[in-house]
Amino acid sequence: MKSFAPPFILAWLIRWTAYGASVPNLEALIPQRRVTENLGILQDPYPDKPRITFRPDGTFKLTVFSDMHWGENPWDSWGPEQDANSTRLMEKVLPSEKPDLVVLNGDLITGENAFKDNATLLIDRIVAPLNAAQIPFCSTQGNHDNQKNITHLQEILREQQVAPLTYTRVAPAGVGGVEGPGNYWVPVYEKASDLSPVLVLWFFDSRGGFSYGDNSTAIPDWVDESVAAWIESESATMNDAWGPAENRGALAFVHIPPHLIQNLQARLNSTKEPGLNADILGSGSTQSTTDEDDVGQDNAFWNSLNANVKNLHAVISGHDHGDEWCIREPTKNVIFCFDKHAGRGLFVSCECRIDLERPRSDKPDLARRTDLRETSLLRRLSAENGGLHINLSDSWESIQKSHYIQSRQGSSSDGSLLKDYI
């Protein structure tokens, strides 16, 4: 039985400032025939859906719900009550936050408590508030989404069937390994008419859990090594079609965090890296650590992601319900963040403003590249009662970031949700 961790949402606000042309001169970079062919593949991976775009003011906001664990303990009163609370939370948060895109970051369902004849119907209830609000969304799947009565693929296909604005996709054949089909990317454009995006959102399937059927066996709990080659291939094709990777930013989502994150917990500085740190990372807390013989099996994925996806601003994971901190992973110099657990009692909103400086027409040396800079680190942690306000400024190795966290604690005695949202 999972812990009664309070709910969490993570909202990322990305600010873009444009200078000069909105797309690079592709003809000057690569042969036109190759451009045309690759743009035909990459320009619109969602031909039947609206393009995801920045707002006219140059901002883009993501809200993340993680580890909702729908369908848990349906035979007890607290299980259905928790599901009802999750729906109520989403119905209040979505119109308040007004996100441009929502991410459901894994463990949508507690699959081991689901029944084969209705397991996928839980997806209908999860996405109902998103359908009602007509907000586009993407999902990753977690270890509890692979169980004897449910699989990642079944969840994805059901999501595609019942949610017109889902952007969740299935990886090409041969990518993702056993029960790991949820590897894909979503382009985000400045304007819907643009040929190339200014931001790419990557989603990865960290698998785990157990295989489908009565003779269920454990599934590897890491992103399969086949994804490494796929990242390299997709990135190369993007560069051919859209120009150098420096022209765009990236964020990545994966349910189970990479195993290298585990060693960073001991060096957390509560002043520089604030946030709940209630779950001690150990066996099974990160990828490829359930069995000590498997440690490092996620290295191929982690190395390829950081080598091929340039301007990767952050990697965001769930899985460990009591953690919500961010830290820079030193070997790859990338920010990693936990997005905690969306359930009941606590609401956290985190906004990150990122200025993406486009090339200036008066600076020819920048004509074929785009500078992406994270600016203005400011963190503020405030309790609902106003008793705690922390404002910090830090350069974070001269790469500055704005990070606003607001926590509100609801009643824990009766399990009620935030009074501000429910």
UniProtKB/TrEMBL annotation:
One of its GO terms (molecular function) is hydrolase activity, acting on ester bonds. Residues 1-20 form the signal peptide. It comes from the Eukaryota. One of its GO terms (cellular component) is cytoplasm. SUPFAM superfamilies: Metallo-dependent phosphatases. Keywords: Signal. Residues 61-322 form the Calcineurin-like phosphoesterase domain. Pfam families: Metallophos. PANTHER family: METALLOPHOSPHOESTERASE DOMAIN-CONTAINING PROTEIN (PTHR32440:SF11), PHOSPHATASE DCR2-RELATED-RELATED (PTHR32440). This is Metallo-dependent phosphatase. It comes from Lentinula edodes (Shiitake mushroom). The lineage of its organism: Eukaryota, Fungi, Dikarya, Basidiomycota, Agaricomycotina.
